[in-house]
Amino acid sequence: MTLLLAAAVLFGITLVFATLLGIAKEKLRVEEDPRIPAVTEALPAANCGGCGFAGCADFAKAVVEQRVACDGCPVGGFKTAARIAEILGIEVVQSYPYRPVIHCGAKTGDKKGVVEYDGVRSCVEANVVGVTQGCIYGCLGFGDCVASCNYGAMRMEDGLPVIDYAKCTGCGACVRACPRNIIESIPFKQERMLVIACSNKEPARLVKQVCTVGCVGCKMCQKLLADMFQIKDNLAYIDYEHYAGEEDREKVIAKCPADAMVYFGKPKPEYAEMLRQEEAAASQPV
Predict the structure, then answer these.
(1) Domain ranges, residue 63
(2) CATH classification at residue 79
(3) CA within 20 to 30 Å of 274's CA: 21, 110, 118, 125, which one?
(4) What is the mean pLDDT of residues 219-232?
(5) Last residue of some domain: 88, 123, 158?
(6) What mean pLDDT do residues 57-68 have?
(7) How far apart are CA 172 and CA 148, in angstroms?
(8) CA 117/CA 137 separation, integer angstroms
(9) pLDDT digits over 129-168, tens only?
């Protein structure tokens, strides 16, 4: 009899709590804005974190709540931003996809003062040691950026990372992985973009001691195209807000004494064909 009474009491308590929880669920229920799942569906579902949020769903919620702009997805680019803007009933201006570039052009043979390194094969670890090569600004070459890429868009080649822009989503993982901050995301206004492939801020005399292709801060680029090029801390910078026409850029490139300017992105058709022929010749049996 006692057991039956105890069971009845427990059943009654359970029933009361279940009823209270059901009432609380209805009273406290927050209706989700139907635009959130719609925006989430419009996103590429990469969940890469390039937008600054943990995933696409969090970004979608922030967009609907007007905490971030609708063009904040680096993977989806302008097309995704336009779809989101249509869902939200707003306008979006033309934007450019942001893609990573490397501010170092020193291949293995261009580096001076290289020191044998027996530590952990990681850029982060080698950067802490700081004595693996003469240039304290250049690429360490251990491929932390390559390891960080979930899309197979990077590989190491002759001491430098190479980016496959056909696979790159612009998520920014490689930018965050580089301990020397030589990888930067820039607006790709054209299929190929000019970049200062150097980060060394030392005077020209010291740059020449550690690298054969480092920027020497000669100011020639600034003199020829002042709107686009700036010199700060002995190093040239490109102002992509004033990215000039190719003809003007070529004149500046021809005058650079250090060959520190490099194009990133899709090459010219003639360059692409030449590369294809070289690769085909290299694959032929000797």
Answers:
(1) 35-88
(2) 1.10.15.40
(3) 110
(4) 94
(5) 88
(6) 89
(7) 9
(8) 17
(9) 877 888 999 999 999 999 999 999 999 999 999 999 989 9
